[in-house]
Amino acid sequence: QLQLQESGPGLVKSSETLSLTCTVSGGFINDKNYFWGWIRQAPGKGLESVGTIYYTGSTFHNHNASLASRVTMSVDTSKNQYSLQLSSATAADTAVYYCARFAGYCSSTNCYSFDSWGQGMLVTVSS
Amino acid sequence: EIVLTQSPATLSLSPGERATLSCRASQSVSTYLAWYQHKPGQAPRLLIFDASNRATGIPARFSGSGSGTDFTLTISSLEPEDFALYYCQQRDNWPITFGQGTRLEIK
């Protein structure tokens, strides 16, 4: 069974870079059928897609330019991991960050949706 | 960017009642719409994909309908464990976007 696990510092200082890694087990990150996403939920807010990456390194960013310009994503297929870096972090980036697998195809079992999620990790940006 | 608008923001119902949640897209997303259930302290759970298909293990009381710009998630008879946040999500176009959520609370 596929499992995803977020890891990284839970506390980041304002203006520094927030860095998270998602480790995938029970499946392969270079599976051509899937993309790998980062989703966050700020306190009292809804879900927000931060960005999505394919195993080749192609990325798809949030439409919000102020967020997209600060996001860097990467994939390490040898470690079955992918990572998020969010530069110039502010208190507004405080959130629970989830990594999740996204089906880039349509079949009887899934279609363009996130079918497996990590448990989430709270990252607090402090001043 | 495709904007998804969910209504109502909060829905107050009792166990056994029928819940109807709405998601409206700013432009057509065909049927590329999914629904998720999210409980505090847990990861979101995929309920419905491709507008009307239940994900693996999802009870039959959950159903989805719609196409184009208007979608509905229906819970036919609410169980105590169904009270949670619900989100819709589209990927007809990149970027992936979520609705702002509907809170289903016990009346």
List the helices and strands and how they pair.
The complex is a heterodimer of chains A (127) and B (107).
Chain A (H helix, E strand, L loop, with lengths): L2 E5 L3 E3 L4 E8 L8 E8 L5 E7 L5 E3 L3 H4 L2 E6 L4 E6 L8 E9 L10 E4 L3 E6 L1
Parallel strand pairs in A: 2-11
Antiparallel strand pairs in A: 1-3, 3-8, 4-5, 4-9, 5-6, 7-8, 9-10, 9-11
Chain B lengths: L3 E4 L2 E4 L5 E7 L7 E6 L6 E5 L3 E2 L7 E6 L2 E6 L9 E6 L6 E2 L3 E5 L1
Overview in brief:
The complex is a heterodimer of chains A (127) and B (107). With 127 residues, chain A is mainly β.
Mean pLDDT of chain B: 96
Which structural class is indicated by helix and strand composition of chain B? Answer: mainly beta
Kindly name the structural category of chain A: mainly beta
What is the CA–CA distance across the termini of chain B? Answer: 35 Å
Order of helices and strands of chain A: EEEEEEHEEEEE
Element-level helix/strand string of chain B = EEEEEEEEEEE
Number of strands of chain A: 11
**Approximately how much beta-strand content do the residues of chain A carry?**
over 45%
Task: Determine the most extensive contact between two protein chains.
Answer: A-B, 29 and 29 residues
What distinguishing features does this structure have?
heterodimer; A: 127 residues; mainly beta; 7-stranded mixed beta sheet; 1 helix; B: 107 residues; 4-stranded antiparallel beta sheet; 11 strands; 0% helix; 50% strand; globular
